[in-house]
Amino acid sequence: MLRIDPTSPTPPYEQLRHQLIDQIGRGELAPGDKLPAVRRLALDLGLAPNTVARTYRELEAGGYVHTRGRNGTIVATPDLGGGADIAERATALTTEYVTAMLGLGLSRETVVRYLQRGIAA
């Protein structure tokens, strides 16, 4: 179940993106599953449609979903060369790292910079 915390300092689109990535990583949303329509999900969560649309665009840019116009947004098949097991492990490791970094009091932007440094190293 998706929920948005209006008191959180995290923007609603980011809360939604994180929750959907978690559901994909845990297999609750499997490759080929269709996400709710933008307007439907916006109505259900009390968000503006543009907020949900932004979340879907960012998920697509990250390779989590494919948007097929009027045919909806579909959870993508992991393309990691090792299938769903590697995708699950990669998601779990990333979530663990990000959670630890946020626990240090770092901002999301700073965590991303550290990730980029690690990739470049």
UniProtKB/TrEMBL annotation:
Transmembrane segments: none annotated. Signal peptide: none annotated. SMART domains: HTH_GNTR. Keywords: DNA-binding, Transcription, Transcription regulation. The keyword NADP does not apply. InterPro entries: Tscrpt_reg_HTH_GntR, WH-like_DNA-bd_sf, WH_DNA-bd_sf. Residues 10-78 form the HTH gntR-type domain. GO terms for molecular function: DNA binding; DNA-binding transcription factor activity. The keyword Transcription applies. PANTHER family: HTH-TYPE TRANSCRIPTIONAL REPRESSOR YTRA (PTHR38445:SF9). This is GntR family transcriptional regulator.
